[in-house]
């Protein structure tokens, strides 16, 4: 983990960097592939979530070993827990708690997303695109909490995204697939809380490596506990032939969380999350290519409206502190 002697620099004083844009796009790709693999095969949502959590736990464990090796080389001896940022700097407690909240919200956001897939199997990509709305809520909350400006183009783009979500909601009600929309909206709310918590990690001074590892572990633990409480792992042996698709999908999704955490901590909440959450487009393309699944036309239109809002949002100047 990072050394506690590092002088953490407030976000507004950092030099501009476009690395967050790259990690947002990488998040889009890895999350899109991961969600496709999870939704492609007939697992129950809870067992699928447990397998995804295994993927999160594996990546968290690998990253723990990697950072331990780096720390040991830096110290010239075997690093212990007492050498970590968490142990040596009690001022990071708010950032640590925010990282835990990120993991918990990731767990329940993913679970409700998978429940939506199960309820409306022909519109999985559309349900994923709905999560783009979490950026609207996040950007508004961050505006009041951390004084980040919202330009006219960004406000207009968010409004168009909202209109696209309303189209999808109307289509879901008419077609009788309102359950998928409701699960998608609940997932949207969990991810909105997660996005704000990620920014709180950065404001709390915790380094991105420590934050990501805590996030991944608590997502995994939350997934195991949720599955145990709700289903008791009773359907495990009925799904032995396809469990590994969800497991591999979980690894992809864990990398997606890694990338999106970096993007939000070092970029701007609204644009970074909206780019990452257009993963539904990739998911719909993969569903069509491999399984010839065609989503309902009006929901596709709603998705296109959402993406149009994304384009308009990204055309505007990036958010800056109101104090600048």
Task: Explain what the structure shows.
The structure is a single chain. With 324 residues, the chain is an all-alpha fold. The protein has one domain (17-315). Helix content is 74%, strand content 0%. Helix 4 crosses helix 9. The longest helix has 31 residues, at 45-75. It is globular, with a radius of gyration of 20 Å. The two termini are 32 Å apart. Residues 1-16 and 319-324 have low confidence and may be disordered.
The secondary structure category is mainly alpha
- N-to-C series of helices and strands: HHHHHHHHHHHHH
Q: Tell me the strand percentage band.
A: under 5%
Reported for the largest beta sheet, the result is: none
Give the CA-CA distance, first to last residue.
Answer: 32 Å
Tally of separate helices? 13
Q: Point out poorly predicted stretches.
A: 1-16, 319-324
Count of distinct strands: 0
Which helices and strands, and how do they pair?
Blueprint: H1 19-40, H2 45-75, H3 85-88, H4 93-119, H5 124-130, H6 134-146, H7 152-175, H8 178-203, H9 208-230, H10 243-266, H11 269-276, H12 279-291, H13 297-315
